[in-house]
Amino acid sequence: MHIRKAVITAAGANQDRLPLQRFVDVDGVEKTALQIILEEVIAAGIEEVCIVVRGGSQQVYREAAGDYARLLVFVEQPAPRGYGEALYRAASFVGQQPFLHLVSDHLYISKERRRCAEQLIELARAEACSVSAVQPTREGCSSITARWEARPSPGTRRSTRLRP
Question: How far is 7 from 108, CA to CA, in rounded Å?
């Protein structure tokens, strides 16, 4: 299984706050959260990225992507109707190919050398199946809203437990 496409959903109410904010990364370089998310998917081998945005917001995302804007395709979601509908709007972009889905208002942080997206894609390839990683978090109670570590579940071949 070769996963070369990613879809980032960003059309929800208030979902545009984080991706457009500027941060200083671990190397001391200032960049937008969107650039950090795009670096996450590129490091995992992703070649094309679709961002599902609200109508009229393509330009601000293009600017926030910086040099990565060349990799982006935009799809508009006229009204926020959830992730399922947002992914449906990206169907023509992904076609019948497997893809990585990320939400735009989370930063993905791994405790190990391999990034989160890389771990998920490696697991999907190894098991030749779809993989979903969810870390339940009450965002108001945590300074980090998404952090994953893939571990094989004891006694199984296909299940993997993801730990914070």
Answer: 15
Neighbouring CB atoms inside 10 A of 150's CB total: 19
Q: Report pLDDT for 27.
A: 84
Output the DSSP codes for 21-42.
SEEE-TTS-EEEHHHHHHHHHH
Contact 153, 159 (CB under 8 A): yes
Burial class of residue 79, CB neighbours in 10 A (0-12, 13-18, 19+):
exposed
Under 8 Å between Cβ of 2 and 44: no
Q: Which two tokens stand for residue 119?
A: 């771990």
101 vs 151, which has greater pLDDT? 101
DSSP class of 17: H
Q: How far is 20 from 154, CA to CA, in rounded Å?
A: 40
Count other Cβ atoms within 10 Å, centred on residue 75: 20
Contacts of 88 (CB under 8 A, 6+ apart): none
Question: What pLDDT is recorded for position 151?
Answer: 45
> For 23-53, what is each residue's pLDDT tens digit?
888 789 999 989 999 999 999 999 999 999 9
